[in-house]
Design goal:
Length: about 220
C-alpha cells in the first residue's frame, strides 16, 4: 500500500482549526490526526468529542482520533458519535483498552492500538489480528515537538508479521523527512507529523518530502 501522511492538528493554529484542516488537505494530507489527551494518561489536556465533531465537519479526508486517555472504554462512544473514522487506544491505558478497541470494531470503523516507546510489541498481541492500525509511538506521548526515538520504530519490524495485510503501521512523534526514511525502513506505512507539517512555510513541500521516504525504500 502507498504511504499515508497524517498531519497532527496538535501543531495547527487552534484558533483557526477549519482553515488548518483545509490547508493540510490542500497540501496533500491523506488523513487528519487528532490527539486526545486527558491530563491523566499523559500530562496534557487537548480536544474533546465536541472539537472532534467540528474537525469532522470541516474535513474531507478521514479523521483519526488518537486517544491518550485512561479508561478509553468510556470515551470511545462519544468519539464515534463525533464522527471519528478511526479510533486508536493505548494498550497501556488503565481500564479496559481491549473492550474499547472491540467497541470500535463493532461500530464498523477502523480500530487502532498504540504502544508507547518503552512498551514491548507483545503488549499488543491481543489486538493485532483484528487491528486496522498499529501505532508505534516514537516519542513519549503528551506533547508535540519532541525528538524521534529510533528504537521505538524498530518494533514495527516484529509487529508487521503479526497483523493483517492492509493494516496501517503508523509512527507518531518527531517525524521529519529524515526520520520518516528510518520509520519507513522499519515498516511504517503511515506517518503522523505535527510540527513538521504545520510549522512549515510550505506544508505541501513538507508532505512531499515525507513521501520521498517511500521512494527510497
Ligand atoms: C504526541 C502526539 C503526536 C504529536 C506529534 O503525544 O501523539 O501526534 O502531535 O507531534 P510532532 O510531529 O511535532 O512530534
Ligand atoms: Zn498522536
Amino acid at each position: 500500500m502507498s504511504l499515508l501522511v497524517a498531519p497532527s492538528l496538535l501543531a495547527a493554529d487552534a484558533s483557526r482549526l477549519a482553515e488548518e484542516v483545509a490547508r493540510a488537505e490542500a497540501a496533500g494530507a491523506d488523513l487528519l490526526h487528532l490527539d486526545i489527551m486527558d491530563n491523566h494518561f499523559v500530562p496534557n489536556l487537548t480536544f474533546g468529542p465536541h472539537v472532534c465533531a467540528a474537525v469532522k465537519k470541516a474535513a474531507r479526508v478521514p479523521v483519526v482520533a488518537h486517544l491518550m486517555v485512561e479508561r478509553p472504554e468510556s470515551m470511545v462512544g462519544p468519539f464515534l458519535d463525533a464522527g471519528a473514522d478511526v479510533v486508536t487506544v493505548h494498550a497501556e491505558a488503565p481500564g479496559d483498552p481491549l473492550g474499547a478497541f472491540e467497541r470500535v470494531l463493532a461500530s464498523g470503523r477502523r480500530a487502532g492500538v498504540a504502544l508507547n516507546p518503552d512498551t514491548p510489541p507483545e503488549a499488543g498481541e491481543r489486538f493485532y489480528p483484528r487491528a486496522g492500525l498499529v501505532l508505534a509511538m516514537t516519542v513519549f506521548p503528551g506533547f508535540g515537538g519532541q525528538k524521534y526515538i529510533a528504537a521505538a520504530a524498530e518494533k514495527l519490524a516484529v509487529i508487521r508479521g503479526k497483523v493483517r495485510p492492509g493494516t496501517w503501521l503508523e509512527v507518531d512523534g518527531g517525524i521529519n523527512a529524515e526520520t520518516a526514511r528510518h520509520a519507513v525502513s522499519c515498516g511504517a506505512n503511515c506517518l503522523v507529523a505535527g510540527t513538521y507539517v504545520f510549522g512549515a512555510k510550505d506544508a505541501a513541500a513538507a508532505i512531499k518530502s515525507l513521501r520521498v521516504a517511500e521512494r527510497s525504500e
